[in-house]
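Weekly puzzle thread! Below is a chain. First person to post its structure in token form gets bragging rights.
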Amino acid sequence: MTTVDYHYKIIIDRFRTFADNHYQLRRFTHGLVTQADLEKEAEWPWIHVKPLNINYEKGAKVYSFDIYISDLPRVEEDKTGYEAESINLCSLIMGDLLAVVNNGSLFGGDIQLRAPVQADVEIEVFTHTLVSVTATINLEVDWDWNACIVPMDQPN
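Winning reply:
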């Protein structure tokens, strides 16, 4: 059983720690993707964490997130070549994130990454071309349905 009560805020803070310490990432956001202003933000590559749901299971809580690793490739003479470079970079960073979650260096051994994890490549054209590698990840945390810690008077 974990000694840390991993809840949403702690998990988001750990994702932020990953972004702050990764040499290639320039920005971290979370919440709805539409809240991130792609035109005003000039720091790339970028990681965005979108919460999906929390499942309460026997002995566990499972947090689900969509993870976006995104970059704006240069749009000079070799557009597809630069897109390939961005896809490569984003996929390597996604692999880094999955590795540090799976090997315990981001959350200790307290959170289990449910596998397999499928990552998809997206290329979206706005004013600029946005390249993203996205994955839905599920993080399992020990949880024992402990009613003793509920902040209320217990009924008789």
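Puzzle host: Confirmed. Bonus trivia for everyone else. The longest helix spans residues 79-102.
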